[in-house]
Amino acid sequence: MNKEVSAEMLLGHLYPELELLWSVRHRGTFYRNYSADVMSLDEEEVTIDIARDGILKLLPPAMLTGDFELTKTNADGQGQKKDFKTRYEEMKKRLHILEEAFLPIDTCNFLGSLATERHIEDIMEVKVNELLKDYFNFDIAKEHDPLVANAALLLPLVASRRGDIRFVKRLIESVAGRKVRIRKSAYSDTDNSRYWMQKIDFDIVIDNLTEETYKLEDSRIRPLTEFISTYFLPIDIFCSFNIVGKNTDVKLLNYNTNVL
User: Fold this and answer.
1) 194 near 233, Cβ under 8 Å?
2) Angle (nearest 5°) at CA 129 between 149 and 7
3) In what order do the strands lie in the sheet with 23-26?
């Protein structure tokens, strides 16, 4: 799991119907450096452990544990009457009771954050639609192709991602759900190699490719590749999109080819 994904984002996307039912335990920020925000999740019990501090962290430490609770001697310098293990178990039990007592408050705070995350996403969806219409003259509400509609959400990144060949590869793989190979070669309209220009081929790999599956995939993916060509590819590099079989030997596709 990506460590940068927040618990609110994860639950909002995967379990929107359970928004008001979660019980949340805060396990402390100590774990945040070593694990994702969501440490564990139980769908059946509707409980989640997160690597954050709860309200107990706001309380003075002296209210939770004593200064001499786990030392060999007490505040008067006399030896402790109970052994270390017994005192440690008593302290853990007391802290557990406090955690259970504050659990409703921690849960209420988290559910508030979860609702806020949902509202922000709703607002952002509206704003993105307006942004695409005003700045890119792209009305996503009128776009009927689902692949193009998904890719269009990345248009605000076009200034920094235009010409990023590997970004285009990941974009096709994520949106179209196909593995993509990149080949770098050159082409020329003349026989003079001095005028050759750089060429990038995106090979979209299909298992068990047949004439029928080729036609279906070409029809499905062509609107997406045309959209990408319009917005995300540089004008000074010739790029093409090719549907190939899984075992196609790229060396046979072009004698002047390098696989990136």
Assistant:
1) no
2) 80
3) 23-26, 47-50, 38-42
User: How many whole angstroms separate alpha carbon 59 and alpha carbon 40?
Assistant: 25
SS3 236: coil
Helix (H, G, I), strand (E, B) or coil at 188: coil
**DSSP secondary structure of 29-83:** GGGGGTS-SEEEEETTTTEEEESS--GGGGS-GGGTS-TTTTSSB-TTSPBPSS-
In the block, residue with structure tokens 């045309």 = 226
pTM greater than 0.85 (yes/no) = no
Q: Which residues contact 44 (CB under 8 A, 6 or more apart)?
A: none
E strand intervals along the chain: 23-26, 38-42, 47-50, 179-187, 197-206, 238-245, 258-259
CA dist 92 and 114 (Å) reads 30
Spell out the per-residue pLDDT of the chain, length 260, in tens: 555 678 998 898 889 899 999 999 998 887 777 778 898 999 999 999 998 888 888 887 777 777 777 777 777 777 777 888 888 888 888 888 888 888 999 999 999 999 988 887 777 667 888 888 888 888 888 899 999 999 998 888 888 888 888 899 999 999 999 999 998 877 766 665 566 777 888 999 988 888 888 999 999 999 999 999 988 887 667 888 999 887 765 444 444 445 44
